[in-house]
Amino acid sequence: MINPLRGMKDLTFEESQRFEHIVNMASTIAKRYGYGYIETPILEETALFKRSVGESSDIVGKEMYQFIDKGDNDVCMRPEGTAGVVRAFISAKLDRQPVKQKFFYYGPMFRYEKPQKGRLREFHQFGCESFGEASVYEDFTMITMISQIFDALGIGYELKINSLGCVECMPPYRQNLVSFLSEINNELCEDCNRRIVTNPIRVLDCKNEKCQFHLVTSPKLLNNLCECCDSDFIELNKLLTKAGIKYTIDTNLVRGLDYYNKTAFEFVSNEIGAQSAIAGGGRYDKLVEFLDGKPTPAIGFALGIERIMELVKMPEIKREGYYMGAMVPEAIPALMTLAARKRLTDKVTVEFSSKGFKSHMKGVDKAYPQYAVLIGEDELKNGTLWVKNLETNEERTIAIDEF
Ligand SMILES: [Zn+2]
Ligand SMILES: [Zn+2]
Questions:
Q1: What confidence category does residue 102 fall into, taking pLDDT thresholds of 50, 70 and 90?
Q2: C-alpha 183 to ligand 2 mean position (Å)
Q3: Which CATH number fits domain 322-402: 3.40.50.800, 3.40.120.10, 3.10.20.310, 3.20.20.70?
């Protein structure tokens, strides 16, 4: 017997319905906000992720599903969705058009990590990327959209926001931070000490409690933003408050790559054990340029479908469509024609073996139909159908042409 690979799983029955419900709901809402569906390849050149996700990240450093294909190309199964969408945006030369572009996607992502609970090697994300809009209203609009998605799915969340500054205010802050960190480096963990050199901003989100204790007094970027970043962040706070979207400011919410700037946000849930992120995103105004496109402001987010599957409240299943069966074998061909016609507009389940009335009615609820439709000897002779509405229990006999 062949089993799925380690860290990969099939989604069937109840789980696949949860998956489908989340994707349908998120896509429907994204479309209302002007996002159009984009499908990009799962396999891309490894260089794309090395450049966009960053060589110093764990994803690229340790977790890439990378291999050399038969044509000697260094390729990689996408570990996240943004890089491919940005690459597609540039490949289609959309960066040279003045139009604003908004895309949503969903699908599998791959990371070669040690499989454990809540961490698969193949997992799924839904995400949106908006290109060409620099206004902070777009940041607010995206956060509103995500909160609507979670509301529609019946999921409680906490929102955290931060500003990562820009090319003007981030570099002087970074220098400031490095001098602070260098003074307390004996108190910090090994990872932090390495990051002081490679990626000092990432020190701020170290999960080590001792590190966090010593970081309380660290300089904060929010107090050192340039005028433009500062007024945008204040505006975002005002808009969220006015819209009744609860949030907290988390100065440790960082991303640590140079093309991320200004707004960063994370939606977390307390309902699956320890607080865990269910969606995250922010501005990346320099990424298009970084991947050789024309400078284009952009913002995006992704949500983790597997985590949300654990939290989603499924809507009540409603009776739908028809169950059709025959009580004499000669009536079965007639059912075939009727079912095909009805399927142009409705869901139909057909029982292929003829059986008695009681037998049919016993099995009818498997398909949870609204109507049971049966043909017996009399019906076949008279050109009629016996129809029962399973919601109201009303029964009647109708001419086949009426069906
Ligand atoms: Zn700034
Ligand atoms: Zn640390």
A1: very high
A2: 14
A3: 3.40.50.800
